[in-house]
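Milestone 3.1: sequence recovery, worked example.
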């Protein structure tokens, strides 16, 4: 799945929202990973079958019948399916949207058995003589008669008991007929709605990953159960039907006295069920003429009409060509469709040949969208297309290895973007959007290893929980480190051999290590100190990462498990005792040195001993997944280097010094004032990545202190630091009439404006209010540049009242551009007026006002506002059972909700409230937010301690700096 939730990465970076007493941040995105779905547990009451098990899922099972296991037995292997689905885009007499279907699955018997166990969830089967299915033998096989059939709700099975045994090596065909609900639950085969010139339109679409194909038709719904799918879709003559493969035929027919189209598709390649897609819609498309295969972009007619699909179309062909070269394997399919859906839970989904997206992740309006929107579109496309090979052609055997699939796509997506947008230096951005983000989570004692044992991941909710920041971003970070120390050509060679060996099959992560090892062995001039397997085991089988300490006076180099809260206890034992094999790229006095491997806890390196003005900088370009600490002397020399000639260090290393220092200080390894000192040179810094690193870390200070006396001096200090940047951009843009040329300059212009307005830099608010007023006076003509809209809207609403808010709401409802709607939706959370915020909170639970897919992130935005935080917390507590029951099934991302609301928690009272919340809802539970709740408690505890220990020091340091500034 695509990893971005609904806010653009760039927009999200420290999206400082100006609320209440000026500056409040709203970023949330460092945590706003959607991914995790709420627990999808069967409701025993729904059971339509006979003899089904009605035990609540929390009760441990004692009975161990084959259908009590969440994993399929290995007796039957599917070969192909023929699936016909007929979604009704109008409600039936009872007001329900349904689909009907027929399915035949052809399977082979591998082990003698008298049971057929196949996944099915929430389907009503047509029964004949009480049986849910028909069975026929193929070839010379005769099928035993069916004795009894029943549904098991808890494990989501249809079970068929036969009167005799199926014979090993023989093939059989199982046929079923069924009806399902085409619900608006964003799972399985579901419906999405939108307005088209005042007319409501319905789309039937699907999301199968991870365990929802079984909700569309009965199937062996595990990634290793690959098969060929012959798909037929029945639909209204006025609509289009799409699926994974090319259309073969479409003919008119009359069914149930209704004229319909019957569209059949070519048999698919051998593939996993979670990658299937079925769509019926009245969309328009654009087609690429140049490619060897068919490339199309689909969206609402209006969006295609206003050319919002062009950018996606233009980059898709080149990105696919790039991957063909990089993987050294041709694109495995004959077409590539990509479609933007009005309602979609994840950011995007890599269905093979028919990739589905949120509208904001695929559509880009050349006039109205921002640079951030553009980057998001190309990033998500690049991520999903990377999966066409890695994930789809070669698929991990089971969900415990999800990290490899998602981490891989999250790493190579940067290579794909770099190929189509070579001027962006996009490969640097992995530091911000993956590494720094996951460092924060993986430094908690409650983190977990990347890789899990197969037997630890069984139930759908356990599978959902795998879609988290660790899998995506730590996966990306360790694979990048691997590619760095193997070198890119060797990495690519091993990869290509892996993909070619296992095409159309399944693997586990060790298979990739084996092929990379072969590539190493075939490269005589490359040497690594241990095998790929042994080096990587330490990074994937134990949680966390090391802080490497270099003592430049002695040459001592050592490592230690880095924990943000130095008092926290690690309960999870590690076979490697929390030590790693650490590849250290480093430089001395600006000169790159030979890579150094730290292979034990403590070592010495004569080269790293320096004297006089000499300095050492390790982990250049943050190529390794670890933090670095130095002796005080070297820290001082690095700080003075920043203050005198910061450009000697690369942008990434400047960013890294700041981020390491702040985090080492959080962990009490270096003094807090040392971290604060890394921000002094920002007076001269003009580059985006160091600024974002600093702002993110200062964000923490803002969150901890924006309700205390420290906030005044913090604002004054920020004002002093941001003024030169504000002036720089004012000049560069001829008094804000132009937009900078450089990609990251455009982002940093947004930072400058946002912070400056937040802390009251002269002229900033006036500028913004003028723009907004002009727009309100003439809504048909928006004078604000798309890049700046997010910031301007938020500030204007923060400084404005109900009139501004209602205007924004009207614009939100009227816009036909999804990214514009998304900006306005975030901005409406910036108001400082409580009743407006409370009304907005109520709107989030009304799908006619805020789409279900956007509910969580909207509540999160409100909670990020210092005025909105207590309101959102009360709201969520008061409505928890409603939220859990109504939205808990997939469309609501609970982990984000919890982590978003608690991000500012730093008092004993808040900790008590949080624990009470956990206690009060023990019965109901927290689904996939369980882990997030544990983390929230750990973080709050750490925050309380941090504030107690640092408040006075921070106040003192900032006061000193700002008083000095006043006298300047
Ligand atoms: C699906 O189509 C293939 C190719 O035409 C065919 O061999 C296979 O038997 C079909 N499967 C089913 C279940 O009808
Ligand atoms: C099963 O066979 C019976 C009798 O031939 C037939 O009426 C029924 O429609 C079949 N059901 C399915 C699901 O194919
Ligand atoms: C399935 O059957 C149940 C029980 O009869 C009924 O409440 C539900 O509406 C049915 N669903 C569909 C999609 O027909
Ligand atoms: Zn993905």
């Amino acid at each position: 799945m695509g990893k971005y939730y609904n806010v653009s990465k760039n927009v999200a970076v420290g999206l400082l929202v100006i609320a209440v007493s000026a500056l409040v941040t709203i970023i949330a995105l460092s945590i706003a990973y959607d991914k995790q779905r709420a627990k999808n547990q069967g409701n025993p009451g729904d059971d339509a079958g006979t003899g089904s098990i009605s035990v609540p899922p929390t009760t441990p099972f004692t009975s161990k019948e084959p259908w009590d296991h969440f994993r399929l037995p290995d007796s039957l292997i599917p070969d192909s399916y023929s699936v016909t689905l007929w979604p009704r885009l109008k409600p039936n007499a009872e007001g329900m949207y349904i689909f009907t279907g027929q399915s035949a699955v052809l399977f082979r018997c591998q082990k003698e058995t008298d049971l057929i166990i196949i996944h099915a969830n929430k389907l009503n089967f047509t029964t004949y003589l009480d049986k849910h299915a028909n069975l026929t033998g193929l070839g010379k096989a005769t099928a035993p008669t069916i004795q009894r059939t029943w549904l098991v709700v808890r494990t989501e099975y249809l079970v068929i008991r036969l009167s005799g045994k199926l014979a090993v090596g023989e093939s059989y065909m199982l046929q079923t007929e069924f009806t399902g609900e085409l619900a608006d639950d964003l799972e399985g085969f579901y419906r999405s709605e939108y307005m088209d010139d005042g007319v409501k339109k319905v789309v039937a679409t699907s999301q199968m990953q991870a365990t929802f194909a079984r909700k569309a038709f009965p199937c062996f719904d595990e990634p290793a159960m690959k098969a060929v799918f012959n798909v037929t879709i029945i639909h209204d003559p006025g609509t289009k039907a799409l699926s994974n493969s090319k259309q073969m035929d479409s003919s008119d027919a009359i069914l149930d006295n209704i004229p319909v189209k019957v569209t059949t598709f070519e048999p698919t390649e051998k593939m996993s069920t979670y990658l299937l897609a079925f769509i019926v819609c009245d969309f328009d498309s654009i087609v690429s003429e140049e490619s060897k295969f068919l490339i199309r972009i689909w969206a609402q007619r209006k969006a295609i009409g206003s050319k919002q699909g062009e950018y996606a179309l233009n980059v898709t062909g080149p990105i696919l060509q790039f991957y063909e070269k990089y993987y050294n394997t041709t694109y495995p399919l004959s077409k590539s469709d990509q479609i933007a859906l009005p309602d979609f839970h994840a950011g995007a989904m890599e269905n093979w040949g028919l990739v589905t997206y949120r509208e904001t992740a695929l559509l880009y309006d050349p006039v109205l969208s921002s640079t951030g929107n553009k980057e998001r579109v190309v990033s998500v496309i690049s991520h999903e297309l990377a999966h066409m090979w890695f994930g789809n052609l070669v698929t991990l055997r089971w969900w415990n290895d999800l990290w490899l699939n998602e981490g891989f796509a999250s790493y190579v997506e940067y290579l794909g973007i770099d190929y189509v947008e070579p001027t962006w230096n996009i490969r640097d951005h992995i530091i911000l959007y993956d590494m720094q983000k996951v460092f924060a989570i993986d430094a908690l004692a409650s983190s977990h290893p990347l890789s899990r044992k197969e037997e630890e991941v069984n139930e759908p909710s356990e599978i959902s929980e795998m879609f988290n920041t660790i899998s995506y971003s730590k996966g990306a970070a360790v694979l990048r480190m691997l590619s760095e120390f193997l070198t890119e050509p060797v990495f690519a060679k091993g990869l290509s051999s892996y993909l070619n060996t296992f095409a159309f099959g399944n693997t586990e992560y060790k298979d990739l290590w084996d092929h990379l090892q072969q590539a190493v062995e075939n490269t005589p001039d490359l040497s690594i100190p241990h095998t790929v397997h042994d080096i990587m085991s330490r990074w994937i089988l134990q949680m966390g990462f090391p802080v490497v300490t270099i003592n430049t006076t002695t040459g001592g180099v050592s490592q230690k498990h880095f924990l943000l809260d130095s008092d926290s206890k690690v309960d999870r034992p590690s076979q490697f005792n929390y030590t790693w094999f650490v590849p250290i790229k480093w430089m001395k006095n600006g000169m790159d040195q030979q890579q150094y491997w730290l292979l034990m806890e403590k070592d010495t390196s004569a080269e790293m001993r320096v004297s006089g003005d000499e300095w050492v900088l390790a982990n250049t370009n943050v190529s390794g997944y670890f933090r670095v600490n130095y002796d005080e002397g070297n820290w001082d020399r690095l700080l003075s280097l920043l203050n005198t000639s910061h450009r000697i260090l690369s942008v990434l290393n400047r960013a890294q010094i700041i981020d390491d220092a702040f985090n080492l200080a959080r962990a009490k390894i270096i003094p807090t004032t040392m971290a604060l000192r890394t921000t002094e040179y920002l007076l001269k810094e003009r580059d985006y990545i160091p600024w974002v690193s600093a702002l993110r870390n200062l964000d923490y200070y803002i969150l901890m202190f924006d309700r205390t006396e420290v906030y005044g001096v913090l604002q004054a200090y920020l004002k002093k630091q941001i003024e030169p940047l504000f002036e720089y951009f004012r000049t560069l843009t001829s008094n804000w009439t132009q937009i900078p040329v450089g990609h990251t300059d455009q982002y940093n212009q947004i930072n400058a404006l946002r912070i400056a307005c937040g802390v009251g830099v002269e002229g900033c608010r006036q500028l913004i209010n003028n723009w907004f007023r002009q727009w309100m006076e003439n809504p048909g003509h928006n004078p604000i540049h798309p890049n700046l809209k997010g910031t301007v809207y938020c500030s204007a609403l923060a400084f404005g009242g109900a009139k501004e808010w209602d205007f924004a709401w009207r614009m939100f409802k009227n816009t036909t551009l999804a990214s514009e709607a998304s900006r306005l939706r975030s901005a409406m959370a910036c108001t400082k007026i409580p009743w407006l915020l409370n009304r907005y909170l109520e709107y989030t639970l009304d799908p006619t006002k805020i789409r279900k897919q956007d509910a969580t992130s909207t509540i999160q935005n409100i909670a990020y506002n210092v005025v909105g935080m207590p309101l959102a917390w009360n709201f969520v507590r008061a409505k928890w059972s409603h939220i859990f029951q109504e939205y808990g099934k997939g469309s609501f991302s609970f982990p984000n909700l919890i982590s978003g609301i608690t991000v500012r928690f730093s008092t004993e009272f808040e900790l008590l409230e949080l624990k009470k919340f956990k206690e009060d809802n023990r019965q109901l539970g927290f689904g996939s937010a369980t882990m997030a709740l544990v983390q929230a408690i750990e973080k709050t505890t750490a925050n309380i301690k941090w504030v107690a220990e640092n408040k006075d020091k921070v106040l003192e340091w900032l006061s000193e700096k700002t008083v000095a500034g006043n006298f300047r």
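The pocket of 2-acetamido-2-deoxy-beta-D-glucopyranose (ligand 3) is lined by residues 48, 98, 124, 179-181 (CB under 6 Å). Confidence is low (pLDDT under 50) at residues 4-60.
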